[in-house]
Amino acid sequence: MSVRVLLAFLCAASAGVVESQVVGEARQVDPLKPAYRAGVDIVSLNVTVTSADQRYVTDLTQGDFTVLENGVPQTLRYFAKTGVPLSMALLIDTSASMVATLPIARDAAIGFVRQVTDGDLVSIIEFESRVEVSQELTSDIGALERAIKRTGAGGATSLYNAIDMGLRVLSKPMPGDTDAPPRRRVIIVLSDGADTSSAVTFDQVRDRAVRSDAVIYGISLGSGQQPTVRPDGESGELILRRLARQTGGRAFFTDEAKDLADFYGQIRDELTNQYVLAYESTARADGKWRRLDVRVGRPNSTARTRAGYFAAIQ
Asked: Where are the domains of the chain?
């Protein structure tokens, strides 16, 4: 498969496992899951490489990477260094418990969107008892700032619903992306507590997250003062930690709102220094979970990416 065809597949699909239309039989499925039966899995990975002193390693070549799927080496068909455009969903907790810290949270989020570069798109999603897409994906920094400034605190915390909405927003194909480099899809979620009011469960949102190619970064504010969680829930800190680990992102924790700008800055630095890899899986399309491991041939360097993915179904 040529790189051009591979790029078309990667850009046209909203899930991390992209399926070629070998059989071509459409199905009525969850929009976050593959839309066609297929015979080939195209897997794309966002990879962060750090040295022993936690500095980003940005001078690697394709030959420095080895991708293992269930322990089996795979042949890379696409490789890119920094500069691959981003589609980001910025999720902001506006529940009643955020009333005192929301002004600082707004300023930190505005500082982040002001660093949006050409080709990047950002959506603003605010959540409390309800979830609202305050701004659809756009590169208009003014529109993003206005959406953030309009946020107001009140209500409970629908954290799972918000992440689910972020995944759906990022799953939409973007006009003009055909034959362009594949977008990296990122969710950045700021919350000061655990879920208390979602219709979606943690298991459901976790399943949808690992079936997508979105990387989740979590910022937990006031993690030492977590509110009571639902009987089927877990602490907000643990939720964000688990989702970040499984999707290849990171989680940050603080009791001080003044740390938010620094956390957003660290996330931006990481996104600026990532690699994008893609390969055709050699395994059978059986719908099973496949474990991923990325290794680099640079001493004292470590690669981080998502833990794995669910294969296509033949």
From this structure: 3-82+273-310, 86-271
User: Token digits for 251?
Assistant: 């989680």
> Which superfamily does 86-271 belong to?
von Willebrand factor, type A domain (3.40.50.410)
Task: State pLDDT tens for residues 289-304.
Answer: 999 999 999 999 999 9
pTM: 0.85
pLDDT in tens, 80-123: 987 789 999 999 999 999 999 999 999 999 999 999 888 899 99
Residue 287: left if φ>0, alpha if ψ -120 to 50, beta else—which one? left
